[in-house]
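Re: weekly structure request thread

Next one in the queue (54 aa):
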Amino acid sequence: MKSKVMYIENKTEGHHGPAWIGKVEFSKSGQTVYFDNKALKKLKIQELVVTILM
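Done, posted below.
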């Protein structure tokens, strides 16, 4: 799996949800991101925002 350091913000608790900077891994298809032993999938509703740090 390919890994990157990313900013992850949980939007399920509103605009000011908890956020982390950490190493994530991507599935082969790129549709699932793994962080903190959890699978974070791309959602139809924008509840989770994942931004690549450059």
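The mean pLDDT is 76. The beta strands are 3-10, 19-26, 32-35, 38-41, 48-52.
Next request, please.
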